[in-house]
Structure prediction request, 737 residues.
Amino acid sequence: MDYTPLTIRKFIYSGHFYSGLRRAIGGLLPALVLVGIFDLPLYGLTASFGALCVSIADQPGPLRHRTNELFGCALLSCLVVGITALATSYGWLLWIAVIGQCILFSLFTAFGRQAGLIGFACLIIMTLTMHTQIPPNEAGQHALLTLAGGLWYAAFALTISHFQWHREERQAIALCMFTTADYLEAKSRFYDARLDIDECYRNLIERQAAVVEQQQAARNVVLRGLPRASANADDARRVMLFNLFISVIDLHETVVAVHTDYGLLRRSFQDSDVLIFMRDLVRKASKEVEDIGLALTQNRPSRQEISTKAELRALEYEIELLKSRDFPNTDPDAYAALISTFRRLRNSLRIIDRLHANTDPKKATTALLDVKASFERFLSHETVTAGLLWSNLRLSSPNMRHALRVALAAAIVMTMAGTILEKHHLEHAYWILLTALIILKPGFSLSKQRNVQRLVGTLVGCVITIGILLSVHSPLALLGIMVVSSIMANSLAILNFFGSSVFTTAFALIGLHFLSPGWLSLTGERALDTVLGSAIAFLCSYFLPYWEFRQMRKLLAAAITANRNYLERAVNTFRGLAPDAKPSPSQDLEYRLARSQVHTAYANFASAFYRMMQEPRSKQVAVAELNNLLIQTHVFASQVTAIAPLLSAVPATSPKLEAALSSILDNLRAAEAGAPASPIRSFDALEADKEVSRTDDTTADNPAVRHELQQLGFQLKLLARSAELIRQDASAARLPG
Prediction:
């Protein structure tokens, strides 16, 4: 993890820290009030457990959705505590209650990420309840106290969000900017001839997946909040946020379109300073976008402190030198690649200027796009139906397999607690199950990664806590450390699971220190419990695993289909468009939707591939082909983005363009079906870069149009090569169906 001052500032002003602060305060406040003021430790701890578990489901999103999620989680937590508390007095009944709830709530992952978090919260509150035997006549009291704590947290968090909606939306957009800046930095590496191109692609693909994830998170927050806008003082700020969101999406798309044959650029300009100027320009642009994001988190207009004029002027000078040497005629492909890249980079800088202007709400007077109900089509939707749950009650379902693994882990822990551990620390065996629940995830690779991080993080946390308890004796100071630990544990839960585990351990052990003087033995028990829980989770992760290669064929087909639809939509939107004209709002919306679907499908494909690479080698299939397909599907989407505005320069009818597009689409359809690859047809045979540029006498005399057509021909050639390689690798992969 990076600990530079800039990274620390970004973290402090980020939504992660803000969310962690809200969740820690809302979760601890019931205990601090009921224990510190009214001396009711049992009531305080139970209520805080309810609040802390509901806080797990408190994720960024529109207020009306979070209201349903938080209050629903509070009611479910009350029900879980009531059932579990009643069962603690009867061993056989506790078995049934725990195993049944493990299966039920683990299946919540079938409904989506947010529902999975609610299910996880219910499992956590179940585990915290079962660690002591509760008399049946007190079960209702525990359930009501848990409900009170959960309702308190829901009301607290929603009230804060009601008054701080602007901050939350700013932070969501700022995260988009930070990931886009990282993507720009990864893009700059292609212009460094010393770096391996394949490694540059691997780095770029990982950054692309992060950008897509943050864009969807911001889209859910910003677009779902738009209907709240009305004729009031918030309008200027809301227009500002909407414009910023649209601009950062446009910037990403423009940067994606800055894609060409990097090998050709490196070979053709290795002896000039062109690549150096391009690399420095993109790196400066990355830093500038990062600064805009930081200014947005601090709620201040950004200042343009970085200038790229020197690099732009230098590139213009180099291009003029090349023209004077007749380079456009001696190496037309390299020249076309250079001009295309330069234009896209210049357009990116213009969008960055627009981002600077849009950070000032006084300048945000008109939205860049009309706000329409059809924007709902861009949002992610999580469906909760009984039919969806029923359809997952089969062994072939990855969600069912995950539920059975969790149930097996719970059964092993309860068996150990009732036999081996009974004489030692039965009352602490819940920590073992807690560890296993936190580690076990639907995917094998994520469970494996979390296992190591949780184990090492807990052991490090134990050592640090021992040092704190030996050196700090003031109860007030220890309470402050505990609160800070809770804030950091919540803040780092997504960013750094290892760090979150360290702070979670410190928080729990210091809390136990206030309840029991035997803190040293408790620390040792927690370390042992974590080792046992980690071992159980490791063994259970091999029980009915769902290996990633099983879904690679489906995800690859989805990525290819999305690319084909994107190309078809781009042609329908921009072809035959009058010069300087814009597509109609409905066409523009459909084009943007197709573009969004490409990025989503690609991110799913890339994420699954990298998860597969963390699994046992025997479960990795067609690695070389899938790696090539990752690169080529990204290249294809980038070329479509680059080619779209150039299509307007083509006449309404162009036989050669039709032939080129038909060839490209045929290859993609064959790749979707996994058809055997025919001999690769060279696109040069179509001579599209020459034939497409043949127009009537009017356009032939227009140098600007002629240049656009030459650029189109060059991009079409790259697009066709990519489609041919996709078909070849999709056929060679032979993925299981």
